[in-house]
Each structure stands twice: as structure tokens, then as C-alpha cells.
């Protein structure tokens, strides 16, 4: 492995600089996380939608399945205060979809999001080997507290400016999220469109801007993308979509089929599921909500308003109403057990790297 | 050079698989094109805004400056038929900018674009070693005619589907234009947003989709991007922004300074200059026209309507009204003579490639 970059692997104590991306919403089961970590890469649990108690339980389950390092991811959120008129309008827009699934369109969610502070407190208690976060900058004190209990801290940035802010907050690594990436955009500073930067341009400019090592994420699906990321200056890579179609991934079988049938132009960014731009496979919901892209309430309000819709869509096998997050590399998806995928990624990358 | 890919260089008869991108609007002077070709890469002349006579004259000047292969680029355009109301509205929107530069806001352009057919006839007569095109698919007959007179033909695609259409039209190479790229998007099939694909995801999927070799373009600025592109499966790379700040480039000195001062988030896509999405440095014009992004007439009408504005902006050193096209890699710009830049790119790439 001597020709793989080492600044990430040596710090985390793992074999391969490959991270299975955290994905909230059931994809990253403890089985998936543990299988990836047991294969020598870094598994990640997407805990953003979990209660503090559920987070501790999931971490315990992961620990029962692996003695290797793993990562737990949270969002950084303030407390939402939506106006009544905004809620009424948003609820009305979602009514036809909820009615189609037999839901009460007027029912409001019990809460708009988990208690973010309590989620971080759960991590401080459970002390996972690695913690990553996104959506905003975690305060210096919490970063220091996480490091104080022994966790390595990764933050997400979509521009060099954001990466500098992450470095100043004291994190160990910064994850460069390219425009290609599936799921939510992590942008927290500046203009959304200016911050929609492809990985080819983002990684080298971020690597030039900060001293902490850069992790490349977005559109990477096989050894070609991994070797390319290393050439650009990344010390590790993070793959999300590539692991969604693994045997251990917890997503709906039809969602897996849609990923396996995807082409490079199957995805689009949309705010309509959650109130924050996220990339996923275009379906009926995304198309019909397109006129309201700029109008839906900001995250996490819209996310809470569509939670019952997305849950019902899964139960009723109606993927046309589900948020099928996926990146622009979805067309390269492979259905494999996670350990086999990791082994393949390593072998494919190895072949493309300069010998040392 | 034995570790560089060879399918492009061997066909074109050049030393390095590096193309200086064609850029219409004065950037790609015959001096720049010839300097790049003389350095062992492929210089490209952006001829889309030139009359058939001017195209032949420019090709003659390039031939006087180099005996090496070079490329000439055109758009593929139909005949525009804007409505009177559309023209009146568009003219009114531009009036404040034109007045600020002392122009008559009511003056209509003499024509909306050059005679596209006559431009291609000029190429068939001048027989440049390489011809590239974008914006649409060139008909099979013209592709065959260009190849018949000895020109190698390259087309531009932004999705795997478009690349397959290019291959079916008989072209020799397809240029994968990533979302990162400066200047106009080449998208000609499908939804604009679905086709906004980062190079990291686009190159491998396009390489998997077609048998003809793929050229990677967008956000590539140095050896890191070139080595990454080769790892992704590209047989050659095309760099535009990187050559804009060369000594031989014909752009305004202040435009060069803006590129050299750029960061990764300095650019945005806008239709407001030309009626077709193009990436450039955000300035006063782009910001003030932002509310009308979707409303301006389609290319080439808006392009013709802003032609006098852009010309006057250059003459009066008012870059806040000029289309400063540039890619997301602009923050890595270097001010060098073209031959020195080519030598540096080769050396930087060499260091990052696997030895054969």
C-alpha cells in the first residue's frame, strides 16, 4: 500500500484512505459501517436523523460488529422558527402527494429536528473514533471537546474559503464536497451557485488553501476516481453513492435498482424534499415540485414536513415520492457486498497509481 | 513521454495530449495558437465570431507562425428568428448598461450571427489539421466532408448520451465538457441541470459509453488536473482558462488581473450575456441581470444584443460590463508565456503519472 497517501490512514489507524460516506435516513446500517471498517476502510454512520438515545445504541451495535475505527456524522443546526403562513403554504403544496399515499395532509410533524446539542452530547459520551459534521461550522469549543474525548474530527466544505474556516475551528481534516456529490450540499458560507464547484477544480484549490489534509468527495465510484483524487492532492476519498447499492445498505430495493439503472444525467439538485439543496435521482416528486424550488421553507422545516411522506413512500413501495439521493457517478453503481467493493476499489486504484 | 496516453497524440501527430481550448472573442490570437502548437501541444483558434473571410485570414496567419497541427473551432447554429416584443424587452433591459457606456440603447445589431454554413465552407477550403465544434451536433455530411479534406474532427458533449450522438455522427474524438469549464456550456440534448456534470463523474462514464477517445475539459489548470484526467480515462485534456493569462492571449489586461486574483468561488453560470449558459467571473453586469437569467432571448440573439456593450466595455476599460469567461479553476491561473506554461504542464504531469 506504500503508494497510497498516508496522512489520513496513519492518523486514523486504518489501512486504506477510503471512507464510506455517512448517509442519514437508513442507508448506513451498523452492518454496512462495520463491514467497511472490517475491510480496512472507514465506515460512517449517518446519525443526523437519530435521537441521542438511538445514536448511542447504533454506536454500541457498530462496536459489537467491529473493533476497527468508524465515523459518526451529524449536521450543525440552529433552532428553526418557521412562520405560520409559511407552514400553511408549504403544507398545502405537499397535500396532493400526501393524499396519494393516504396521509393526513394537515398533520404537522411533532418536531422540526432532533435536539442538535443533545446529539453532540451523545457523541461526547459515546466517543466514536471519528466524528464528521456538515451544514455549518461547529463551534471551536465543541470541536475541542470532541478531540478531548479522543475523537478525530472531520468537517465538510464546498469552497476554499469554507475550508479555511474549518481549519480555524480546529478540525483535523476537511472533506471537499464536489458539485458531483449525492445528498445534501454542505455550503455554509457565500453564494450557493458560486459554491457549486466540481471536484476537479475544488480539491487542488482547497489543498493549496489549507494545511490540514483534504478528503475528496463527489462522483467518485471506482479506482479511476480514487486515483484521480490522489493526483489532485487529496489524502483520502469519501464515497457515498458507491456504497448505497451494497448488500448491507439499508435503502429500499427499488431505490437500489434505480441507482443501478442510472446514467450520468439521472440526478439533479433540489430543495423540495428538505429545504436544502441535495442531489438525487429525478422522480415524479422532484419534477412536480420544480416550480417551487426557491419557495419551500429552509432546512429542517421542509424536511420535517416531508418526513411522513417519505416514510409512507418506502412502506408503500412508491419511490416516485421518495428522496433517492445519489451523485453524478450513479451510472457506475455496482451491487456488491461492502467488503468486496472495498477490495475492488483498492485493487483498481493500485493499478493506476505511480509506484514509489 | 511514454507514460502519456497516445490515442490523441498519435492521430493528430503532436507531442503532448494537451489542447489549448478555442475561445472566441479575441483570446486565442494566432500568436497564442502558434506558440502552443510550436511547444508540442495543440493550439486552437476560436473562430465562432469571425466572418468566413476573417477565418481564412486567421488560418493563414497561424500557418505563417507554425508548421505544427492546430485546431479551429466553430459553433453549430440554426437561423435565429426573434419576435419583436422579445427584442424590445431585451433591448430595454440592457439600456441602463449601454447608456452608462455612451451607446445608443435602441440600436439593433446588423445581424444576429455569422452565416454558420459559410463559416464551415471556409474551413472546408482552408483545411485546418483539426476542426472542433460545439452547441449542437454537426450533420454527418459536414463531418464527412471535413474528414474528406483531411481535417480531424472533435465535438463537444456534456453527457454520455450526447457523446454517443457525436460518435454516431462520425467524429474522431469527443470532448467531455465538465461543469467546471469556463465559457459556454455545450449542452445540446436533454435538461440543462441534469447535464451540468462535474468532470470527476463525466469522464469515466463517457469513456465507458463510447469507443472514440475522450478529451477532458473543465477546471484543469496544472499537472494535478491533467494526471487526474488521465486516471479517469481521458486520452487528452483541454485547458482554456489556464491559457487566458498567457502573454500571447488577447484579452484585456484587467480581465487577466481578475483571473489571476480569482478564487474557486469567483465564477457562476449566466445566460445574461449571450442567451446560453456560460461560466465567468461574477461582475456588476452578472449581478444586476441575475433576476432575468431565464428571461433573456436565446443564443445568439442576446449575444448579438450585448456585442456593442462588450466591445465598448473593452475600449473604455469597464470590465464590470464585460463577459470575463473563466472556469472554476481560475484561482490557479498563472501569468506565463504559452511555451513555458506547456513545458510546466508536461513536467508537472510527468511527475504524477505511473511509470510504464
Lay out the secondary structure:
Two copies of one chain form a homodimer.
Chain A: H1 7-12, E1 18-20, H2 30-38, E2 43-46, H3 52-65, E3 70-75, H4 84-100, H5 116-126, E4 130-134, H6 140-148, E5 152-157, H7 160-168, E6 173-177, E7 183-184, H8 199-209, E8 214-217, H9 223-232, E9 236-239, H10 241-244, H11 253-260, E10 267-270, E11 278-281, H12 284-289, H13 301-305, H14 307-315, H15 338-352
Parallel strand pairs in A: 1-9, 2-3, 3-4, 4-5, 5-6, 6-8, 8-9
Antiparallel strand pairs in A: 7-11, 10-11
Helix pairs in contact in A: 2-3, 3-5, 7-8, 9-15
What does it look like?
2 copies of one chain form a homodimer. Chain A is of the alpha/beta class. The first copy, chain A, has 2 domains: 1-77 and 114-248 and 337-356, TIM Barrel (Alpha-Beta Barrel); 80-112 and 254-329, no CATH class. Chain A is 40% helix and 13% strand. Chain A contains 15 helices and 11 strands. The first copy, chain A, has helices at residues 7-12, 30-38, 52-65, 84-100, 116-126, 140-148, 160-168, 199-209, 223-232, 241-244, 253-260, 284-289, 301-305, 307-315, 338-352, and strands spanning 18-20, 43-46, 70-75, 130-134, 152-157, 173-177, 183-184, 214-217, 236-239, 267-270, 278-281. Chain A has an 8-stranded parallel β-sheet. In chain A, strands 7-11-10 form a 3-stranded antiparallel β-sheet, with no helix packed on it. In chain A, α9 links the parallel β8 (214-217) and β9. The radius of gyration of chain A is 19 Å and the shape is globular.
Amino acid at each position: 500500500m506504500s503508494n497510497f497517501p498516508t496522512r489520513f490512514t496513519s492518523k486514523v489507524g486504518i489501512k486504506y484512505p477510503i471512507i464510506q460516506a455517512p448517509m442519514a435516513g437508513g442507508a448506513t446500517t451498523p452492518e454496512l459501517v462495520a463491514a467497511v471498517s472490517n475491510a480496512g476502510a472507514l465506515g460512517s454512520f449517518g446519525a443526523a436523523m437519530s435521537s441521542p438515545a438511538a445514536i448511542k445504541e447504533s454506536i454500541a451495535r457498530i462496536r459489537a460488529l467491529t473493533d476497527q475505527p468508524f465515523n459518526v456524522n451529524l449536521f450543525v443546526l440552529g433552532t428553526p422558527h418557521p412562520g405560520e403562513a409559511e407552514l400553511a403554504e408549504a403544507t398545502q403544496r405537499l397535500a396532493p402527494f400526501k393524499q396519494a399515499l393516504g396521509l393526513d395532509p394537515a398533520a404537522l410533524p411533532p418536531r422540526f429536528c432532533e435536539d442538535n446539542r443533545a446529539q453532540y452530547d451523545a457523541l461526547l459520551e459515546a466517543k466514536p473514533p471519528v466524528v464528521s459534521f456538515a451544514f455549518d461550522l461547529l463551534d471551536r469549543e465543541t470541536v475541542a471537546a470532541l478531540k478531548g474525548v479522543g475523537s478525530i474530527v472531520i468537517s465538510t466544505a464546498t469552497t476554499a474559503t469554507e475550508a479555511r474556516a474549518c481549519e480555524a475551528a480546529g478540525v483535523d481534516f476537511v472533506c471537499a464536497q464536489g458539485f458531483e456529490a449525492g445528498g445534501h450540499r454542505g455550503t455554509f458560507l457565500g453564494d450557493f451557485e458560486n459554491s457549486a464547484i466540481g471536484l476537479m477544480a475544488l480539491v487542488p484549490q482547497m489543498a493549496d488553501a489549507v494545511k490540514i489534509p483534504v478528503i475528496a468527495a463527489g462522483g467518485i465510484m471506482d479506482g479511476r476516481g480514487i486515483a484521480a483524487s490522489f493526483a489532485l492532492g487529496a489524502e483520502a476519498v469519501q464515497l457515498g453513492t458507491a456504497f448505497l447499492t451494497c448488500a448491507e445498505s439499508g435503502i429500499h430495493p427499488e431505490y437500489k435498482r434505480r441507482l443501478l439503472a442510472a446514467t450520468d444525467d439521472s440526478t439533479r439538485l433540489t430543495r423540495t424534499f428538505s429545504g436544502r439543496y441535495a442531489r438525487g435521482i429525478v422522480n415524479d416528486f422532484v419534477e412536480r415540485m420544480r416550480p417551487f424550488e426557491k419557495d419551500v421553507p429552509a432546512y429542517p422545516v421542509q424536511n420535517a414536513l416531508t418526513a411522513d411522506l417519505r416514510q409512507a413512500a418506502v412502506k408503500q413501495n412508491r419511490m416516485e415520492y421518495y428522496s433517492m439521493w445519489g451523485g453524478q457517478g450513479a451510472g457506475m453503481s455496482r451491487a456488491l457486498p461492502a467488503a468486496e467493493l472495498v477490495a475492488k476499489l483498492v485493487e483498481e486504484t493500485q493499478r493506476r497509481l505511480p509506484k514509489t
